[in-house]
């Protein structure tokens, strides 16, 4: 079982490197990528400046693994990678990176949507929205 968590934001260099590593896999015809980015939401007159992510890592990694296995069972995909941030991630930075590869584009699109929705619905990762005035509230997934 893989640890999907990365400390802090997921860097553009890490994302680019992940994509580049797949050039040698010549049975792949399509990649689909989801990048979750922290928004500067305005809530009751306050602006989000960052989100601090926490998780029950062992339980969350198990859920990520179950989602991975379910996705491979349901779709004809070649590979899939999931990375999620822990700790503070600033506005504009990437907190979730999901990368799905398949021989065909439609399958990649459908599998990626399935994975992202499953993550949002079932993985115990918690986000504390940190406002610019140093107050906070716990994020509710929608």
UniProtKB/TrEMBL annotation:
GO terms for molecular function: molybdopterin synthase activity. It is an enzyme of class 2 (transferase). Its EC number is 2.8.1.12. The keyword Metal-binding does not apply. It catalyses: 2 [molybdopterin-synthase sulfur-carrier protein]-C-terminal-Gly-aminoethanethioate + cyclic pyranopterin phosphate + H2O = molybdopterin + 2 [molybdopterin-synthase sulfur-carrier protein]-C-terminal Gly-Gly + 2 H(+). Keywords: Molybdenum cofactor biosynthesis. Pathway: Cofactor biosynthesis; molybdopterin biosynthesis. Pfam families: MoaE. Belongs to the MoaE family. PANTHER family: MOLYBDOPTERIN SYNTHASE RELATED (PTHR23404). Heterotetramer of 2 MoaD subunits and 2 MoaE subunits. Also stable as homodimer. The enzyme changes between these two forms during catalysis. This is Molybdopterin synthase catalytic subunit.
């Amino acid at each position: 079982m893989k640890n999907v968590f990365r400390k802090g934001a997921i860097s553009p260099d890490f994302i680019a490197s992940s994509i580049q590593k797949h050039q040698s896999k010549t049975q792949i015809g399509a990649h689909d990528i989801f990048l979750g980015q922290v928004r500067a939401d305005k809530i009751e007159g306050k602006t989000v400046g960052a989100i601090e992510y926490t998780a029950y890592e062992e339980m969350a990694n198990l859920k990520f693994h179950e989602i991975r296995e379910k996705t491979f069972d349901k779709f004809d995909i070649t590979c899939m990678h999931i990375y999620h941030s822990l700790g503070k991630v600033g506005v504009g930075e990437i907190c979730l990176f999901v990368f799905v590869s398949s021989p065909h584009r439609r399958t990649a699109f459908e599998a990626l949507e399935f994975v992202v929705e499953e993550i949002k619905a079932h993985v115990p990762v918690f986000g504390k929205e940190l406002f610019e005035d140093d107050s906070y509230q716990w994020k509710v997934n929608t």
